[in-house]
Design goal:
alpha/beta, metal-binding, lyase, magnesium, TIM Barrel, lyase activity, eight-stranded parallel beta barrel, magnesium ion binding
Length: 290
């Protein structure tokens, strides 16, 4: 799954859901968890379901829902109300490993059948580092049903370990949170799904967002979470290959095609091998040429 920007919108605000759905985000996540107060959750899930049902069916593929955690009192009610409205996918927060993804798959399968929806239509992105236990299971999602992307979170992890904060004096994440980020990336690579970086909390700091998005793309992430519509264009641009990158990638692909069977090829003073070809093909895919 190729999606650069994943924009949260509170599930109890129709205005913000409309804005997210109408904007350029690749995926709009209608949030029933952190953005909604405890007492407002029943009304919010109905609002989200009504919002989805009112959208053209073709639009719903990019409208996902973040449900509440599976081990809490709201997740099943969230799913029972919103799945008949056919969201494109579900974000699973505070997952502790593959067993949670499998449990969610069972719930979704039953609800899809009940609603007359083809089984496995609803995809899943998993938040994989929000609890201490989850840090030890990021590599467990290989072959997990429905999972197409993995992302991580730093704020809930800080709460889980009793930290006073998750950043150093210079604003960079501490070791534990950079570890969480790396484990998410490695877990997603092992599972063959899209790694998605976490939010940039200061939505006014677009220069900082741009620098971070460009860095994590170089590291291997394929997209990023957003908390404000102003962040979306910056993220989309950062995760879209430039004309020069596409041209260079196409040159490598063409070179290997012209030298079928070659394991290594000298090019512009550099020895290219099959990993270079794989990366070039990934760039072309991200640019819509794969």
């Amino acid at each position: 799954m190729i999606a650069r920007s994943w924009l949260f919108a509170p599930g109890d605000s129709e205005k913000k859901m409309v804005r997210a759905a109408a904007g350029p985000a690749d995926v709009a996540i209608l949030d029933l968890e952190d953005a909604v107060a405890e007492e407002a959750k029943p009304a919010a899930r109905t609002m989200v379901a009504d919002f989805l049902a009112a959208r053209p069916e073709a639009d719903r593929a990019r409208l996902w829902v973040r449900i509440n955690p599976l081990d809490g009192p709201h997740a099943l009610a969230d799913l029972a109300v919103v799945i008949p409205a056919r969201p494109g996918g579900v974000m699973l927060p505070k997952a502790n490993g593959r067993a949670d993804a499998e449990r969610l798959d069972h719930y979704l399968s039953a609800l899809e059948v009940s609603a007359g929806i083809d089984r496995a239509t609803t995809k899943v992105i998993v938040l994989v580092t929000e609890t201490a236990a989850a840090m030890f299971t990021t590599g467990s999602y290989v072959g997990a049903p429905r999972v197409v992307a993995m992302t991580w979170g730093a704020e809930d992890l800080a709460d889980a370990v009793g930290a006073a904060g998750n950043r150093g004096p210079d604003g960079s994440y501490g070791f534990t949170y950079e570890l969480a980020r790396s484990l998410c990336l490695l877990g997603a690579a092992a599972a063959g799904v899209a790694p998605v970086d976490t939010i940039h909390g200061d939505f006014r700091d677009l220069d900082g967002l741009r620098a971070r998005a460009e860095k994590v793309r170089r590291d291997g992430f394929q997209g990023m979470l957003a908390i404000h519509p102003a962040q979306v264009d910056v993220i989309n641009t950062a995760f879209t290959p430039t004309t020069a990158e596409l041209a260079a990638a196409q040159e490598i692909v063409d070179l290997f095609a012209a030298n079928a069977g070659a394991g290594t090829i000298g090019h512009r003073g550099v020895m290219l091998d099959r990993p270079h070809l794989a990366r070039a093909r990934a760039v072309l895919a991200a640019g819509g040429r794969g």
